[in-house]
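worker-03 picked up job from queue 'complexes'. Input manifest follows; two sequence lines, order preserved.
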Amino acid sequence: DGGITQSPKYLFRKEGQNVTLSCEQNLNHDAMYWYRQDPGQGLRLIYYSQIVNDFQKGDIAEGYSVSREKKESFPLTVTSAQKNPTAFYLCASSMSGSSYNEQFFGPGTRLTVL
Amino acid sequence: AQSVTQPDIHITVSEGASLELRCNYSYGATPYLFWYVQSPGQGLQLLLKYFSGDTLVQGIKGFEAEFKRSQSSFNLRKPSVHWSDAAEYFCAVGISGGYNKLIFGAGTRLAVHP
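worker-03 finished. Artifact:
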């Protein structure tokens, strides 16, 4: 089955640690996205990538980093510079970077800072 | 600036009753409009989308939405709600002319009473 997988489902981090969230898709989509979801705030865009080896900052990129070395993979690193990282993180992909293309979402990773 | 407003944070309906979830957007050009649904702890699933043409759009699970340009609205409706419809619903607007940016509303949480 084609789709998007995210791992782990739950992640706990101590303050000062960097953690990496995995996102893999087998839909052959060119574009991939990372969103952060907080209660009552909808989804906010962290980073996006339209093609391999290229990515752009979204609305709340500070304290996060990404890489796009393969078309299928778009890992997100939450660095110690992110002051309030506890949230639900969603990865998405779409066929291309055009805004009429549907975005497909993964099941999410819930990150908690201890 | 572009924005999406979902005026109702929580809505409770009885099973079998009709449902309307409100969505208003602010965007200068013709928008691409989406409704997504999210079950607790899960990713988002597309219910329906509007790009152009017929302003009444049919989606999955018996949902429909009507685009009203004069009111900048894209309200979601269902004639008879089922208990399995309890979830959070997000309206989003796709910004055209660039990368595939979706701006999400804050969401409406739907509870269904038996």
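worker-03 released lock.
The radius of gyration of chain B is 14 Å.
Chain B touches chain A at residues 4, 9, 32, 34, 36, 41-46, 49, 51, 90, 94-102, 104-107 (CB under 8 Å).
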